[in-house]
Specification:
The protein has 463 residues and is mainly beta. The protein has one helix and 31 strands.
C-alpha cells in the first residue's frame, strides 16, 4: 500500500465517523435539561414540633442552568424559595421547611427587614424551573402547608445610646448600650460592621434573662478596650440586630453608631534626665500653702534641676516633702486628668477628696504614698499644669475636662506636710504611682522612685 491510498483510507474513516456522530445527534432527541423534579411530601406542618416539619426537594440538571423554586397560591401570589440561582449539572436534594424569601402581607407594618419567613398556611402549586439560554423547563405539583407557627420574631425595640461613643477609658461615653426587645423567643445576635464587611460582635449583658428569651435584652460594647484590645478605627459603623426563630424565620434591624477618639490609654512616669526617677526634696512649710475644700492655698514653685541622690532624705517634722516627676503620654489617644493641679500642698491627714477633688471614673492622676499613709495614694495631682493640658467643654454633661495629648510630656510636682512622726516607721519609704481611677494602676507604675524618708523633731521639740 502506497502513501496516497493510506491517506485516502484515513480520510474516509474520519468522514464516516463524523457523519455517524452527526446523524446520531440529529436522530436522537436531546437529554432533558431538568429531570427527576419532585417534592417528597404533599403536606408539611412547619412548627418545630419534630413531626412533618420538613420535606425534600429533588431535581437533576443535564446541563448548567439557573434554577428557581417557587410556590403559587390560588390567588396568584408567589413565594420564592430559590430564585435564579446558578447550578452546575448534577443531582440535587435540598430540605424545605416552609421558609421562603421574606415578604409582607397586606396591611403589615413590621420594623426591620424580613429576610426569611414561613409561607402562610394553604394549598400551593410548587414549581421547579430550570433556565439555560433559550431553554426553559418546569416541573410542578401540589403541597399543603398546615399548622405553621407563623408568629414572627419581631424586634419591636432597637435603641442605641449614645449614638457617638469614645472607647478610651476616660470615663466619658466609653461604652455604647444597645437595647433590644424580642416579641418571641429566638436566637439573637448584635454586631457592628465596617465598610469592608468586618464584624465586631457585641456581648449581651447577663441580667437574669436568658439569651433568646422573649423580652428586653441589653448589649454592652466597650470596643475591647477593657480587655486591653486596641479598638476598631474611628468611624461610623452599621449596627445590626439579627434574630432567627426555631422555624428559621429571620428579621434584621439596622442602625448606626459612630466611634471616635478610640484607643488604649498609655501613660507612664519617665526617668529624669539624670539621677533618680522621682525627685524628692524638702522645704519649710508656710500657712499660705494651706488648701482645703473651701480654701485655695498658694502653690509651691516647680523644683528646679534633678536629684541623683538616692540615700535617706532626712527632714524636719512639719516641713514639706516635695516631689517632682515627668509624665509621658506615649499612646495614640488623649489621657483625661483632673485636679488638684501641680504645686498643691496637702496636710498629712488630708486626701484628694478633702480638697474637693473626688475620684472620677476614667481620670488619671499622679499619687504619692508613704508607709504611714492613712489610705492608698491619698495625695493626688493632675498629670500636668493647667496651662499645659487641653480643656474640652462637654455640652452634654456641662463639664470641662482636661486632656494630656498623645506624645506630650509634662512635669508634675507638689508637697505633703509631714507632721506625723511614727517611731516604729521612721525612717519610712515614700514613692509615686499612676492611678487610673476606678480602673486600676498600670503595670510597673504602682511603686516608682521609692525614697527613704527620715523625720527628725524640730530643734525646739524634745525627742
Amino acid at each position: 500500500m502506497n502513501t496516497p491510498k493510506l491517506l485516502t483510507l484515513i480520510v474516509a474513516v474520519i468522514t464516516v465517523i463524523v457523519v455517524g456522530v452527526a446523524g446520531y445527534i440529529i436522530l436522537r432527541p436531546p437529554v432533558a435539561l431538568l429531570s427527576g423534579a419532585t417534592i417528597d411530601a404533599t403536606e408539611i406542618s412547619p412548627n418545630a414540633d419534630g413531626t412533618d416539619d420538613i420535606t425534600t426537594i429533588r431535581y437533576s440538571l443535564a446541563r448548567p442552568a439557573r434554577v428557581s423554586v417557587y410556590f403559587d397560591r390560588p390567588d396568584g401570589e408567589r413565594f420564592y424559595f430559590r430564585k435564579d440561582q446558578r447550578r452546575s449539572s448534577g443531582d440535587y436534594a435540598v430540605l424545605f421547611s416552609g421558609i421562603v424569601d421574606g415578604y409582607l402581607l397586606p396591611g403589615e407594618d413590621i420594623p426591620g427587614t424580613i429576610e426569611r419567613r414561613l409561607i402562610p398556611n394553604g394549598l400551593y402549586q410548587w414549581t421547579i424551573e430550570a433556565v439555560r439560554d433559550d431553554e426553559t423547563e418546569r416541573a410542578t405539583g401540589q403541597l399543603a402547608i398546615v399548622d405553621a407557627d407563623s408568629q414572627l420574631p419581631i424586634i419591636s425595640v432597637f435603641e442605641i445610646h449614645p449614638p457617638v461613643f469614645t472607647p478610651n477609658q476616660d470615663g466619658i461615653r466609653d461604652r455604647v448600650s444597645i437595647n433590644v426587645y424580642l416579641e418571641k423567643p429566638a436566637n439573637l445576635s448584635v454586631y457592628l460592621e465596617d465598610a469592608e464587611g468586618e464584624r465586631y460582635y457585641v456581648p449581651e449583658r447577663q441580667e437574669g434573662r436568658e439569651p433568646g428569651d422573649m423580652g428586653s435584652h441589653e448589649f454592652d460594647y466597650d470596643a475591647g478596650v477593657d480587655q486591653s484590645i486596641e479598638p476598631p478605627p474611628d468611624g461610623t459603623y452599621d449596627v445590626y440586630a439579627v434574630v432567627q426563630d426555631d422555624e428559621g424565620q429571620r428579621i434584621v434591624r439596622q442602625s448606626q453608631v459612630t466611634l471616635q477618639d478610640g484607643g488604649l490609654p498609655q501613660v507612664e512616669i519617665v526617668p529624669q534626665v539624670a539621677g533618680a526617677v522621682v525627685y524628692f526634696g524638702d522645704m519649710p512649710y508656710d500657712d499660705s500653702y494651706y488648701t482645703s475644700m473651701t480654701t485655695e492655698g498658694e502653690k509651691i514653685p516647680r523644683p528646679q534641676g534633678v536629684i541623683s541622690d538616692r540615700t535617706t532624705l532626712t527632714m524636719v517634722q512639719g516641713d514639706l516633702l516635695v516631689f517632682k516627676l515627668t509624665i509621658h503620654n506615649y499612646g495614640a489617644t488623649p489621657i483625661r486628668t483632673t485636679g488638684p493641679f501641680p504645686g498643691t500642698v496637702y496636710q498629712f491627714d488630708q486626701q484628694a477628696s478633702s480638697l474637693g477633688a473626688y475620684e472620677e471614673s476614667g481620670a488619671w492622676r499622679v499619687g504619692i504614698k508613704c508607709d504611714t499613709s492613712l489610705s492608698d495614694f491619698p495625695w493626688r495631682w493632675a498629670l500636668a499644669p493647667r496651662d499645659e493640658v487641653e480643656e474640652v467643654y462637654d455640652e452634654e454633661t456641662g463639664e470641662t475636662y482636661y486632656y494630656l495629648q498623645p506624645g506630650q510630656q509634662a512635669e508634675v510636682w507638689g508637697a505633703i506636710r509631714m507632721t506625723e512622726l511614727i517611731n516604729a516607721r521612721n525612717p519610712q519609704d515614700c514613692w509615686a504611682g499612676l492611678i487610673h481611677e476606678d480602673v486600676g494602676i498600670p503595670a510597673f507604675q504602682s511603686r516608682v522612685g521609692a525614697r527613704e524618708i527620715k523625720l527628725v523633731p524640730p530643734p525646739d521639740v524634745d525627742d
